[in-house]
From TrEMBL:
Protein name, per record: WD repeat domain 31
Record lineage: Eukaryota, Metazoa, Chordata, Craniata, Vertebrata
Matches recorded under Pfam families: WD40
Record's keyword terms, sorted: Repeat, WD repeat
WD repeats: 79-120, 122-163, 171-205, 277-299
Organism: Nothobranchius furzeri (Turquoise killifish)
PANTHER family according to UniProt: SPERMATID WD-REPEAT PROTEIN, WD REPEAT-CONTAINING PROTEIN 31
UniProt cross-references to InterPro entries, sorted A to Z: WD40/YVTN_repeat-like_dom_sf (IPR015943), WD40_PAC1 (IPR020472), WD40_repeat_CS (IPR019775), WD40_repeat_dom_sf (IPR036322), WD40_rpt (IPR001680), WDR31 (IPR040066)
SUPFAM superfamilies, per database record: WD40 repeat-like
Length: 361
């Protein structure tokens, strides 16, 4: 019954975009060509990540962790084990491991080659787990929760080896700095903290921003951090680029979203293009920014899709985007061939991008 209800809701909200808005909204005229695959989830999707160039893993309010071959448009395994909504999923690159965090206060570990039961359970947090990151060597799992605790677990034994609580540190997201022992963590207390995983102490605290920090990502070379913040009416909805080599040094701000920016990611560098950052927001849009100049290179509005809280960059030009109302989206970001009609790009901006939805599932 619940599933039927949700399917009807999805249909209502998402199909008009395919048919009705042509002509009404000039920037989304390609929407009639969106492929519709079997929906990965019933209900809102909170998180999506890549397992391989073809496969993604996602989680949401239906408590399931779902594997999807989005290049073929085929649903794979569905992992059931959480009894509250799934907040984050991550994969360990090059492996068949999946980790999922949930409002049920646990983290479960799954292996694609070992059936559909969890192979490990990490229990100890007292509230929703929002932060999840694996050490570069694949041996440790770092978790953070709304309960103010940051924990470091041994993956093989599922033992919590280090833990530390900081008053009012309601963890919203965690990122392991590539090839290092540092972890970056955002919080509802508006602070960004850098942890040393060897001592399990905070090694740097970035100056508090005015708004809750919702998400963070670290550039592949480990030099830059991007964090995003909540807000409304255009206030506080920015993402910020920081220099990790000079902690606390703000480089640029990406301003344009009208509501909470819920996700921010570095895009893989493609030849001939400037370094880029992508953001998604509760305002139902995805924006692509020039990483260094902070110019908005393109905007995609997914009207009716509700909050967009997770992005997973794949091989260019593909980008996956999770939504509350309309499932997952395969998006393509390409250099515009017709500069003058760039879809929603900033006025006069050079190198306007075409951003379009290819498939929805
Ligand atoms: C940390 O946790 C302990 C045990 O639950 C508690 O007594 C203490 O007040 C907490 N400290 C902070 C800073 O939250």
């Amino acid at each position: 019954f619940k599933n039927n209800f949700c399917l009807i809701k999805v249909t209502k909200l998402c199909q008009p975009q395919n048919y009705l808005w042509i002509g009404e909204k000039a920037d989304n005229t390609f929407d009639s060509q969106v492929l519709q695959y079997e929906p990965a989830h019933h209900g809102s999707i909170n998180t999506v990540t890549n397992l391989s160039p073809d496969l993604c893993v996602s989680g949401g309010s239906d408590q399931a962790v779902v594997l999807y071959d989005w290049k073929q448009g085929r649903m794979g395994q569905s992992f059931q084990g959480h009894n509250r909504e799934v907040t984050k999923v991550i994969c360990y690159p090059g492996s068949t491991w999946i980790f999922s965090a949930s409002r049920d206060k646990t983290v479960l570990m799954w292996d694609l080659n070992q059936g559909d039961e969890p192979i490990q359970e990490f229990c100890g947090h007292e509230l929703v787990v929002n932060g999840l990151a694996i050490s570069p060597d694949g041996r440790k799992l770092s978790t953070g929760s709304r309960d103010n605790w940051m924990c470091l677990w041994d993956i093989e034994s599922a033992k919590c080896e280090q833990r530390h609580n900081i008053s009012r540190n309601l963890v919203t997201h965690i990122c392991w700095v590539p090839a290092s022992s540092s972890i970056v963590q955002t919080s509802e207390d508006k602070t960004i903290r850098v942890w040393d995983s060897r001592t399990w102490q905070v090694s740097n605290t970035f100056p508090a921003k005015q708004y809750i920090q919702t998400y963070c990502d670290v550039s592949p070379n480990g030099n830059y951090l991007v964090s995003s913040s909540n807000g409304f009416g255009g206030q506080g909805c920015e993402a910020t680029l920081w220099d990790l080599r000079q902690p606390g040094c703000k480089v640029v701000e990406y301003r344009g979203h009208l509501q909470t920016t819920a996700c921010c990611v570095f895009l893989p560098v493609s030849p001939g293009s400037p370094a880029q950052v992508a953001t998604s927001s509760h305002d139902s849009s995805v924006r692509i920014w020039d990483q260094n100049t902070a110019a908005c290179l393109g905007t995609l509005s997914l009207d009716g899709a509700g909050p967009l809280v997770s992005l997973a960059p794949s091989d260019p030009p593909n980008l996956l985007c999770a939504s509350f109302n309309c499932g997952l989206h395969q998006i393509q970001v390409e250099q515009s061939s017709h500069q003058a009609q760039g879809s929603g790009a900033s006025p006069g901006g050079a190198g306007n991008l075409d951003i379009r939805v290819v498939a929805r599932f």
